[in-house]
Amino acid sequence: MNNNIFPCLWYDGDATESAEFYCKVFNGKITADTPMVMNIDLFGQKLMLLNGGPHFTKNASVSFMIICETEVEVQKYWDQLIDGGIALMEIGEYPWSKKYGWVRDKFGVTWQVYLGENGDVEQKIIPTLMFIHQNNGKAMEAMKLYTQIFPNSKIGNVLKYGDGVGNETHEIPENVQHAHFEIDGYSFFCMDNSYDHQFDFNEGISIVVMTDSQDQTDNYWNALTIDGGRESMCGWLKDKFGMSWQIVPKRLIELMSDSDPEKAQKVIMAMMKMQKIVIQDLEEAYVS
């Protein structure tokens, strides 16, 4: 399992409550606990919960598929996630699964609870990207871009709407109904959808990529911001589809975690002024 790539969920002060809830639902554990950042481990997978303020709201353009082995397991997760939440697709039998439901929980995170074969996918929880509005029809293009940028990447099974599994939705036949891809060994699902949803990709859910060097940081940053992407602050960017990424050198975390609070604070202050993270500038702030 590659824990150098993981989702980040944006919260307005309730990250701790959410972390405790998910650890209870999925029998996980909290691995980092600070006022701003909570890290949790669910099934050996890392999720980051960020208390960032009221600026962004999580939505279903990025949901999380939970691959379950039994109908009892599906029901167990559903019963807990629906508590205080809203059913987007009621739990039941569908053409693609004997037991499936899509729920937005009380923290605004959307989960697809699914009875199905994992196949050769090791992950239990799989981020699922929905390409809508101006991105509808671009799921295949996105998969090709992402798998070209990252090593150890591949496009797996691709089901198109024209292949005919429960397509009564008048979707374009060549668009992606469901597909699997991996970047550096981390699995995603994706789909195209023509419905005029009242949401789209935003900073509410981003993907964090931890890097080993400045070269790696530069390469990912440049490749993801090319051709219509947009640089933001503190290592954040948006790619051409509007999907948010955080490209974070591991050295930043080491320096920010220094036992000398004054040095750590200098590093944080330097980082706050950056768009792309520059390791040498962090090191200079650390020793200044």
UniProtKB/TrEMBL annotation:
Keyword rRNA-binding applies: no
Coiled coil: none
Domain PhnB-like, chain residue ranges per copy: 4-113, 123-248
One record GO biological process: methylation
InterPro entries on file: Glyas_Bleomycin-R_OHBP_Dase, PhnB-like
SUPFAM superfamilies: Glyoxalase/Bleomycin resistance protein/Dihydroxybiphenyl dioxygenase
Keywords, sorted A to Z: Methyltransferase, Transferase, Ubiquinone
Keyword Ubl conjugation: no
Protein's name according to its UniProt entry: 3-demethylubiquinone-9 3-methyltransferase
